[in-house]
């Protein structure tokens, strides 16, 4: 699921005020863009071939058994020397017994969701009929929300292998923090 919305709000021009107030405080534009989405589906694979059959025999595509809460602690090293955030708990998954299929469904888990709000403030100044200037201040991820980068989870696409070593279930990077920029454009 994904929601995206944008807006532009032209603030009052203050035509009744004196020229100084009108030119400095009137005619600003406030704009924004909000994006929100749920996390993509995720399938955990055991990395083993316990069911000994099927067209993918030997490829380690079996699904494990879920034996606890899938989301939780345990994915990041206890020493905390690397940037890491627990997402999936490795202790919640065990390799399925020989000759059986695991109970974790395809796409039954999800990556973290995403939420971002960008805003801008701008004003046009007219010098003559044909010459003007635009000032803009733009801010991206204005609320400085941490959106984890799902590509930092060890896996391929929507699949995550349980035997991927110390990276299973850990989120190790995030998208950009709050960023601001100023712009000045001459129009003629």
Radius of gyration: 26 Å
Contiguous helical run count: 1
* Helix content percent band: under 10%
List the secondary-structure elements in sequence, H or E. EHEEEEEEEEEEE
Q: What structural category do the secondary elements indicate? A: mainly beta
- Strand numbers in spatial order across the main sheet: 1-2-8-9-12
Number of domains: 1
Shape: rod-shaped
Mean pLDDT: 83
Largest sheet: 5 strands, antiparallel
Low-confidence regions = none
Beta-sheet strand percentage?
35-45%
Overview of the molecule:
This protein is mostly beta strands. The chain has one helix at 19-25; strands at 2-10, 28-37, 41-45, 65-66, 85-86, 93-94, 109-110, 114-126, 132-140, 159-161, 170-171, 179-187. It has one domain. It has 1 helix and 12 strands. The strands form 4 sheets. A 5-stranded antiparallel β-sheet has the order 1-2-8-9-12, with no helix packed on it. Strands 7-3-10 form a 3-stranded mixed β-sheet, with no helix packed on it. Strand 8 and strand 9 (132-140) form a beta hairpin. The chain is rod-shaped. The relative contact order is 0.21. The mean pLDDT is 83.
């Amino acid at each position: 699921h994904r929601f995206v919305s944008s807006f532009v709000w032209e603030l009052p021009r203050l035509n009744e005020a004196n020229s100084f107030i009108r030119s400095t405080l009137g005619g600003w534009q406030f704009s924004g863009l909000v994006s929100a989405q749920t996390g993509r589906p995720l399938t955990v694979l055991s990395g083993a071939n316990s069911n000994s059959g099927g067209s993918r025999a030997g490829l380690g595509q079996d699904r494990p058994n879920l034996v606890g809460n899938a989301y939780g602690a345990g994915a990041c090293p206890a020493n905390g020397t690397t940037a890491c955030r627990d997402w999936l708990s490795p202790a919640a998954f065990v390799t399925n017994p020989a000759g059986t299929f695991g109970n974790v469904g395809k796409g039954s888990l999800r990556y973290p969701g995403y939420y971002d709000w960008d805003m801008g403030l701008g004003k046009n100044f007219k010098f003559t009929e044909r010459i003007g200037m635009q000032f803009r201040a733009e801010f991206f991820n204005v609320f400085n929300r941490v959106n984890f980068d799902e590509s930092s989870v060890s896996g391929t696409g929507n699949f995550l292998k349980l035997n991927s070593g110390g990276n299973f279930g850990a989120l190790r990077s995030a998208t950009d923090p709050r960023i601001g920029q100023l712009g000045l454009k001459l129009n003629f």
